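cache lookup: miss for this entity combination. No prior model stored, computing from scratch. Input as submitted by user K.M.:
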Amino acid sequence: DARVTQTPRHKVTEMGQEVTMRCQPILGHNTVFWYRQTMMQGLELLAYFRNRAPLDDSGMPKDRFSAEMPDATLATLKIQPSEPRDSAVYFCASGLGSGGVSGNTIYFGEGSWLTVV
Amino acid sequence: AQSVTQLDSHVSVSEGTPVLLRCNYSSSYSPSLFWYVQHPNKGLQLLLKYTSAATLVKGINGFEAEFKKSETSFHLTKPSAHMSDAAEYFCVVSAKTSYDKVIFGPGTSLSVIP
């Protein structure tokens, strides 16, 4: 059963520390998304990639966040330095960006639950 | 421009009674429409999707939704609620041929009363 895999599932870290979240998209998917979910803001799109190239990262705070795809099977989201306001659930999702009958379905991972103290 | 409105932030139903979660959208494109469900401490799971075929779409767990272009609506229904249906539900609209305009609604929290 193909799925998006995220690590770590849970992370507690101190303010100022670097946090790296990893995502393995579904094999064959060429589009990868990073979302952040909080009670106050709901789901926010941070960035997304098509064929490993960043297409849109306008939702991501550039001063401390960075997103990369070193290869087709790995996407990373890094926060440096982390702050308490970064506490949230970070979801990775993937899809096959060809449109058409696929209907652009996005498949989500289980999320990385980040707490910055 | 695209947008999604979920008319109720919270819906409460009794077990065994019908469920109706409302979604209205606006889109400059021919849209694809989706419903996702999120159970507590879990990721988002696809319930169903509309692309361009039948306007009545059947999904998992007995849910279905009807695309009504004239009303720009895509309401989610289920004939009989089950306790396991208690979750957050998101209506999503995207451009049919691109991910570039994927918009999530704010979500509707469904409670099921025994």
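stored under new cache key. Chain A touches chain B through 28 residues (CB under 8 Å).
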